[in-house]
Amino acid sequence: MNDYMLTNTFTGISxxxxxHAFGEDVGRAYYYASSVQREYLGNAFDIMDKEYGGAVNYxxxxxxxxxxxxxxxxxx
Length: 76
Known about the structure:
76 residues
């Protein structure tokens, strides 16, 4: 979660910048569509837990990703 939340810092996304560039309503809309929020990832994990029994099951069974193969490729 902490790495995810650093996305806004490293991309320079800020609500003030969007409001300054596009006005209050449009700026807020662009900001929330372009930025990361703790709730976004938290909700995604909650849904994966509830609907699929966790992130690993979702990735393996719903996305069809071979996790063991990925481990072999990326982990030494």
